[in-house]
Structure prediction request, 631 residues.
Amino acid sequence: MPSKSYDLPASTSIPKATLHGNSNKGFHQDEASAEPPYPMQMKNGGGQVNPVFEDPPPDYPGSKDTVVGDLPEEDGEDRQQWSHPIEFLLSCIAMSVGLGNVWRFPTTAYENGGGAFLIPYLIVLTFIGRPLYFMELAMGQFSSYGSVKVWKVVPAIKGVGFGQMIGTWSVVTYYCSLMALTVFYFIQSFNTVLPWTYCNPEWADENCVDSAGNFTYTNVSQSSSEQYFNKFVLKKIDNIDDGIGLPDWRLALCLLFSWIVLFFTLVKGVKSSGKVAYFTALFPYVVLFTLLGRGVSLPGAVEGIIYFINPQWHMLADPNVWYAAVTQSFFSLSVGFGAIITFSSYNGFTQNIYRDAWIISLADTLTSLLAGFTIFSILGNLAHELDADVKDVVRGGSGLAFISYPDALAKFDWVPQLFAVLFFLMLFTLGVGSAAGLTGNIITVICDQFPKIKKVYITLGICVSGFLLGLVYVTPGGQWILDLVDYFGGGFIIYVLVIVETVGINYIYGMNNFIRDMKFMLGVDLGIYWKFCWAFFIPVSLTGILLYILIDLRLPTFDGQEYPEIAYTCGWILSGVAVGMLPIWFTHAVYIAEGSTFSEKVKSVFRPKGTWGPKKMKNRKEWEKYIQNQQ
Prediction:
């Protein structure tokens, strides 16, 4: 069994803590006691007593006033919480059911063979995505800590939190560039005629054919929606050997607007983002169902849908397809980015996250399928009109959604402008929901590390720097950089850190201890499904796939072209910096650990700190008693 069963020996007494002042001051250890008011020893399965908690600092958790904007850092009594449990649920849905589903999922499915990708994706969601989602929800809610301080549970791998922050930051910067594209299309949708509906001589070439018309196509034809996106919106270049060019001022203004909206969404913390979630979580479904209804009515739509759901069994033996399925599940659920831990840390201690995990993961799966059916029905129609195979109808890449969705909008017979406005408004709200959750996690981490700086200033600094970094994506070579960062920053980094995270909770802290804590908090017995996934399937399958991917390394390409060597080098540096947080913070943890010898210091960082556990005094006392009763 990959876990250890811990308990307090009968002879161990737990002195009571004495409250001083009001709850804003936290509590101090009773001066008459030389022992801290936290469980100091637990037993293994054979009854042997092993020290597993470090002594907490004498002023834990609040002998001094600690202020993180409007978020108290250590005082669990005053930690900001969601106004209502439904706001937490909707915020998680808005973050998880977002661009990862509507933009990235159809693209990844198309690039990996449609039905060849769908089956691995559904398997991964069931046995990896959902269990990890619930695990991260539980970590945050039980401890009321963000994605870095939660690693008081295993100080040796605190670097996971900082590595996730780097991966999250790289994703957020290009998420906002996608939001900028939606703003641009939203504005263009108010034209009398949708500008991508017909070929405009200003940007179209001889191979362009109108998206709204019925014409004879050749095998070199491109729809007007595709040429509009590549030639007019992006002004995309064929290679980046000579650089990526300068930012497009139109897209730069749209990017600025996106970050301004994000700033006002985040500035008040969960109190403001929770209210926004009522709209961002529910509105997209109305538009998606409308688009799906139009898509399936088009000639050839059935062929596209069949391509999407028809399994190609031989592809199941390709680890690269499984790797794509895993990274996509992390994106669509936002697993491994730290944001789920942060969101749940604002919950009440007994929030039913067991139910929430099922609701959110099912909503995420259904939304991905909804977006997939919509996109592939449109691709089927394009294949029908172009007299081509679905797999060859358009190039893959991050721009697929900005080609297929507008192409469908161009075929609406009645007021296509209205549907275009609604669709791009929906896409923007999805972006806000996703980016707000991920950026909010970064803000929380920084606030935790620099509690004296007001949250509004940290939020402003994050948004300004995010805008400046995002300018690289609105250059003619921006889509090249986006795909590169997506592979190294959002994919590889998160993949590696999730493996370490899973091993840390289930093999170092101990799966039995984690399940015990969940039973104390939620009052439910977790079944064999969760234990099998956490202890065996997730670490073994992820490690096996990763080893194969590293041995048979296939670096990303763009439109079938390889990147310059300097681009690959930058990608590996980005991944190296994030994964390098593990040894850096391990070294730091050992350096500050208590112990007379190096060996004692190393052992101590693999044990929970004395400050690990429920932050509220009432919950902590009950937890300590619960542990004692497990003897």
